[in-house]
Amino acid sequence: MNFWEFLGSRHQQLLTDAYQHASAVFQCMVVATLLGVLIGTVTYRSEWAGNLATLTTSTILTIPSLAMIGLLIPVVGLGVPPTVTALTLYGLLPIVRNAIVGLRGVDPALVDAAKGIGMSRAARLLRVELPLAWPPILTGVRVSTQMLMGIAAIAAYASGPGLGNEIFRGIASLGSRNALNQVLSGTLGIIVLALLFDAAYVLLGRLTIPRGIRA
């Protein structure tokens, strides 16, 4: 059975795995983005706090994904919980770092002007600083998503959802006639999903970033 015949015979399962893979990454990115921006807004005003946040999230990223999932299994069990926890933690670093850099890069004159017209600190953050810091934050989200697309494949080790199941099944049956097809279909599926997500982020940037800021 060649690769195209394999895709035709397994397309339903592959579509299901692709949907689960994309859903897991998307949901984890939403959580990681909210947490990352929150951490960034809390720590960007202080040099040591910002450095601590960046150091902590970068340390998490140095833990091998198999080791991370292996450590989480005794705590949260198999399946979705270790997948969601690991992906959320791995997605934090680029978002936290870019949120801090973006917020620190806002022109102080604009913040002073907002303060001068009576805006509260929360209003200045929400209406002036975060919108101006959004381009680097979005870049961090894009980088995190690309990382998590690949890392999510390891979730199959803990009976997690996604295209990693095809890859692991293929590796486990090396020597059989469809082993390579399984690995290839899972790998190409992840690449296609990563490209689709990135295209969606480009569109989101065009819709949410004013042309003057993009320029």
From TrEMBL:
SUPFAM superfamilies in the record: MetI-like
Main location: membrane
InterPro entries, per database record: ABC_transp_perm/SBD, MetI-like, MetI-like_sf
Subcellular location: Cell membrane; Membrane
Annotated Pfam families: BPD_transp_1
Stretches assigned to the ABC transmembrane type-1 domain: 18-201
Entry's transmembrane regions: 20-40, 52-73, 183-204
Keyword hit for Acetylation: no
Keywords: Membrane, Transmembrane, Transmembrane helix, Transport
PROSITE patterns: ABC_TM1 (PS50928)
Membrane topology per record: Multi-pass membrane protein
Highest taxon of the lineage: Bacteria
Family: Belongs to the binding-protein-dependent transport system permease family.
Name of this protein: ABC transporter permease
Source taxonomy: Bacteria, Bacillati, Actinomycetota, Actinomycetes, Kitasatosporales
